Amino acid sequence: MNSLQKIQQLTANQVCDFLQSGPRGLDRQEAVRRLTEIGPNSIEVHDPWRLLRSFLRQLTNFFTLLLFASAGICFVADHLQPGQNMAVLGYALATVALLNALFSFFQEYRAEKAMAALKKFLPQQASVVRNDQIVQVDITELVPGDLLQLGEGDRVPADARVVKTQQLLVNNAPLTGESRPIALISDALDEPDEDHDNIAYAGCLILRGSGQALVFATGLRTEFGKVAHLSQAISHPPSPLERQTSHMVRVLTIIAIGLGFSFFCYGVLSGRPLWVNLVFMMGIIVANVPEGLLPTFTLALALASLRMARRNVLVTSLSAVEALGSVQVICTDKTGTLTRNQLMVTHLAGPGSPDNLTSRRQRLQLLELACCASPVDALQTGGDPLDIAISEAFVQESEKGILPEQRQHFPFDTERKRAASIVRKDDTLMFVVKGAWENIRPLVTEYQAEADITAQEADATMADLAGQGLRVIAVAWRSLTMGEVAAAEDKLEHNLTFAGFIGVEDPLHPEVPPAITQCNAAGIKVMMITGDHPQTALSIARQCGIVSCDHEEQSIITGNELDTMNLKDLENRINEGGRIFARTNPAQKMKIVMALKSLNMVVAMTGDGVNDAPALKTADVGIAMGKSGTDVARASAQLILLDDNFASIVAGIEEGRTVFRNIRKFTNYVLVSNGPEILPYLIYILFPVPLALTVIQILTIDLGTDIIPSMALGQEPSEPDIMQEPPRGHDFQLLTPGLVVHSYLFLGLLEAAWSMSLFFYVLLDGGWTYGNDLASTDPLYHSATGIALATILLMQIGNLIGRRFKSQSGLDAGLVRNRLLIGGILVQMIVSWALLYFPPLSAILGTGPVSPAVYLAAWLGIPLIFGCDYLRKRRLQKRPSVS
Predict the structure, then answer these.
(1) Nearest in space to 100 (alpha carbons), one of 335, 321, 298, 314
(2) Cβ 501 vs Cβ 520: under 8 Å
(3) Contact 95, 105 (CB under 8 A)
(4) pTM of the full predicted structure?
């Protein structure tokens, strides 16, 4: 038996003995001693060096170290051979490395917000009894044994066992996720129940009444603290795109370093100067590693996040934009996510019929009686949601909305499970009761109906309504004499006339069923994880389409069942059709997510409460509610639904899938230019010819002219079939063999062949002969290297248009509508001209002019690369594309 179960089963006096406290509270010396021994009532675990370690980790990752090493080589080369602008290149590479490290660090820094948000759920001071006096103390000074004074509007500062109560009503939504008010009692429980009716939990709100409670757990030992610890201890896993990007960078870097070092050694053995070999090795590395690709990823994801915001999905972590498109399973909370988190009266039933009452008079009478049994302030903010729902239904049904005069109200009693009132209607005194049917049924002697109704028929009506997942309220009444008005409540509860049943439910958002239908069509499973009753959860799941009628029973897994399962058992139940998880706690939610991830699934988790925070961080994509969600949930999530609408998730998935497809497009586009960047260095080290491209010119492509076209491809709209494809999952590859072959060995070789052809044409036409040295300051060299660079830039235009679609040409109306795409094409055109004929730019890049005929020949590269690629597409249309 755990301590929570034990303290529930003790009487108030036994609790005082157990905690060595009493009605006078602790004395100050004992409180100080316990505080020294146990520690402060705080959920924070201080680690002053955590952020510094995070920043250093970002500075020492594989990609950042490579760029810093490349910058170092540039500085060495500049020292050995000044005047080659290698120092400028070094500073550029170091800046790119630092910016990438700072961006990654900023993403981790967001985790600090989660703990700050958790603190807001706890009050700053609490009223306690010490030395028989009520005093205000800082919540961090609370210790087990402190006697708390609780009142309406208070937020509970620590876990405490209730020992005295006056109609104490609490909302445990921050922990359970369910906004159903719970009446707290001070009695011992023979068998601990699921709602823990004699425990006030830290972080939860007192809705009504007052009472006293003895603190038995503080800080991280509270249920709230356990959630905080889970949230703090969990680091969010890398997204599928982050994993694949890291894999791609490692592969390209290994290739770059391998080629660079091999040919560096070859150059040394062949007798070339050391600085020449260093420049060559630097060129190979820079040409192989797409320095501009990661910044372009960031820009594309940022632009996609703006589009998602227009669809009511706020992105707090850019990697989640694409990760949402990879999702295979959505684990959704029920209350506030699928449903509106707002109780509504949806059924009014007579005693002997499950059908709604057909007569307006009958409906009005039933609602009026139920309202009479509610407190007079039922419509005021902060009241019991059930009373509010019944009162609103009466106001809507009634023209005047005026109730009989209430003479006396008997609040809801947790043992009797009913509330009652004495009212005067016209000249008649009435005793009206509403509550659970099983508790009112023994008090009923008559049934208000035209035909004779039996208790068994009323039982059948009740069962029918409950089977629909409704919360059912029974209403009964009887006339009183003046002599009975002063009688106690239990003396009045007899010979009641039963009026009917009121069915209350938290209705679905109307957009939810079609959204789940879309998820099913897209191959995405939807699972419900809730703290609510299994039958209620099943009813909601049936209504929105999460489960089918044929497989209802095996789809439900309760929290008690989860406790008995290991991960393997849970994986098997999920594979057998488990879709609904009811009566779950935060640790179990995490267990579900971990089981799904063990099945190699990409998991999205939605939630709005404190209890959802650990699972939100454990999932691949955490999705919080923007309106009804707590600060804790929002700080732990990567996506926030601004309209709390499950349907917005589907819109986000479509956007995420589009983002990934566009990332594939511009990755393919960027890698094509690596071919014509690498080949000149291989030819240069193997043959006695000038170097066709300098490192600065390569960076002009990678960090300059390729950026805008890449961003334009990232802006391409969704294609019609995007939501008919199955999810990618964890095992997809961004850098596939097909993409490498297409980028390097097909389009890359085409660009390299045409650009090198014009390079050598200009050299030979200018009088250069094979084997002769050519100074880097020679105007002929400037012209030759200039036309090689201009040709690559122009051919990238044909490559850009071809990358818009896998099978279509790319020449359609969408080309003109994408203004960024047109802008990228214009940039390529203008820069290709300016680097040849605009002296200030030529001086920076080391290029020079060529004859107009040669420049026009460079333009022929556009139809050359576009046409060859289109022929390839036509040939592959009848079989899967390899690109």
Answers:
(1) 298
(2) no
(3) no
(4) 0.70
